[in-house]
Amino acid sequence: MIVIGRELSASAGHLQADCSSPSPVRHGADMLAPKDRTKHTLGDVLVEIESRAATLLQQTNYSTPTAIADLQFLAYQSRYSTDLNIKRRIITKLVDSGLIDIIVHVLSSVNDAECFQTCSELSSIDGASLTGSADADPEVDMSDGMKNLRSVITLTWNATDKSTALCEQCIRRGVIAMLLQLLESPYLVASELHDKSRLFVVKGSLGILSCIVRLCDDDVTHEVYRSAGAVKALQQFLRCSLLAVRTKSLIILSYIATESENDVIHASDKNLVFAVKILQSALESDNHYSSKYGYWAVEIVSGQLSLIFLHSSVCCDVCLELSWSPIFIMLPVILAKVTVYRSCVKTQV
After folding, report:
1. Residues with Cβ within 8 Å of residue 3, at least 6 apart in sequence
2. Which one of 38, 171, 225, 253 counts the least CB within 10 Å of its CB?
3. Are 32 and 44 within 8 A, CB to CB?
4. How far apart are CA 317 and CA 196, in angstroms?
């Protein structure tokens, strides 16, 4: 049996900070979980999602405090349930309530100069950066634009992981290009990822791009990515020391790169070694899922990496150096499951 999708744990920040934001949930019927602990049914949650989405769609500026509570609420609901059926109903309601318009509006309103600065920097009288206290709460010092961006990235990441319909809407509405443009911001280069919010934006954006190309794995989608400059934008992250960033970039490139562009992936032996280690981690687990890198074996070999694994003499040398000969036995079996895997992901919401 092939297990599909991941329950994403990305946080949109401290979602309980606002009185209208949900508190920690203990029971399935308590998803809204206000402070008075009144119980709410799934129906209540779906109604509230529709209401909050409608409020957000009436706004024109998403870099202000006005949208924070509603976006955080929707982000929280998108990641709440471990019950797959409940989660699918919530994601479907989000998509039906105009989620794609909210995503487009928020991403369109992102202003680098404001979003990636802290509140102390924005409030500085002379415009110079203020050092602030080393003990300052990063959530408190986060700009309103960044809070909203984090929420919409969490929301989009969780929803695209479960909804093929939303993935298709993202492709048609230019979300791919918006995310790639965001990733090319000078505020998000590898040297800036010591900042947790910036790191989250990069990981989340790559997560969304990975979900979309996984659920809409066809030539049209690949061309949308390439036309939007994905190969160039993602190439920089292959040199990133952070595993989550490097892994997602490599996997996305393996889907969209043409055979003639494969040199982008294996231009360095280090990338090949890294790719082999990802697959090794997945194949050595009982269920062929790498908890370290966050990918299933079938996802890893669904792209051009399968050709590299099978036909690259350097890859063979790497496997031998790692004393990992099982790849030559197990990889053909995994590749045989790719067709089944692709047909299964198409059945998602």
Report:
1. 287, 289, 296
2. 38
3. yes
4. 37
Cα–Cα nearest to 27, from 17, 18, 39: 39
Give the model confidence (pLDDT) of 325-345 as tens digits: 555 445 555 555 544 444 554
For the full predicted model, state whether its pTM sits above 0.85: no
Residue 289 included in any domain: no
Which positions ≥6 away from 21 have C-beta within 8 Å? 15, 69, 72, 73, 76
Domains: count for the chain: 1
Task: With respect to residue 181, please indicate whether it lies within any of the assigned structural domains.
Answer: yes
Q: Is 266 buried (19+), middle (13-18) or exposed (0-12) by CB count in 10 A?
A: middle
Q: Which domain holds residue 160?
A: 1-129+136-216
On the question of pLDDT at 322 being above 90, the answer is: no
pLDDT at 197 over 80: yes
Q: Residue 304 is which amino acid?
A: Q
DSSP 118: B
Sign of the four-CA dihedral 35, 41, 44, 49: positive
Q: Concatenated DSSP letters for 56-105? A: HHT-S-SSSGGGHHHHHHHHHHHHH-S-HHHHHHHHHHHHHTTHHHHHHH
**Over 161-180, what HEC string results?**
CCCHHHHHHHHHCCHHHHHH
Q: Is 307 helix (H, G, I), strand (E, B) or coil?
A: helix
169-178, 213-222, 301-310, 336-345 — most confident range? 169-178
Contact 256, 222 (CB under 8 A): yes
The rounded distance, in Å, linking the Cα atoms of 161 and 286 is 23
